[in-house]
């Protein structure tokens, strides 16, 4: 019993030390393969990866984050996973992040700014390297929290005109106006606008769609 390793015995988890012993190399070499991204020979890398696969080794991302000050996680907050727009957006985010070794930790806010704040507090416990937020309608406490953590944050689906704020999106009002102009150009005159969700981005398209109609002298039906 005295010769058994306490960590492996207590947790039952395979450690880097186990992988190093199986591969006949040092823990530094194993760390270079799974943590630091350091250079090892192709033959040694193959031997270490084969040993890890045989033992069922899973790298400890929390330990890696402490060692490198990088978690390789990006927190993503979206309103819903039932809207295909957001599902496609998640697929695009993953397509960009994965080749660089990053992964998403995602949560849904259900279109609630208060829920967004609660979820963000929880996600920050995972020490993400950055945050992607949907829209610009956040509680002041959410913005203060991001600022206090000094985390890169990008607002998606809308344009944020605040100095120093990063955003990827478009003007919702201009989008609504473009839709109205599309139908007016095709001869439609009695247009209606229906906002089926409590999404502020959807609602913001209403005033935009009204402007081209008013210029034609026909107020739109709003709902």
Note down, in words, how this protein is organized:
With 223 residues, this protein is α/β, with parallel strands linked by helices. The chain has ten helices and seven strands. The protein has a five-stranded parallel beta sheet with strand order 2-1-3-4-5, with helices on both faces. The chain has a two-stranded parallel sheet with strand order 6-7. α10 links the parallel β6 (192-193) and β7. It is elongated. Residues 1-9 and 219-223 have low confidence and may be disordered.
Secondary-structure map with pairings?
Layout: H1 6-11, H2 16-23, H3 27-36, H4 42-55, H5 61-68, E1 73-78, H6 84-97, E2 103-108, H7 113-124, E3 130-134, H8 140-149, E4 153-157, E5 166-169, H9 172-185, E6 192-193, H10 200-215, E7 221-222
Parallel strand pairs: 1-2, 1-3, 3-4, 4-5, 6-7
Defining key terms:
223 residues; alpha/beta; single chain; disordered N terminus; disordered C terminus; two-stranded parallel sheet
SSE string: HHHHHEHEHEHEEHEHE
Helix content: 40-55%
Total number of strands: 7
Instruction: Supply Rg.
Output: 25 Å
| Largest sheet: spatial strand order | 2-1-3-4-5
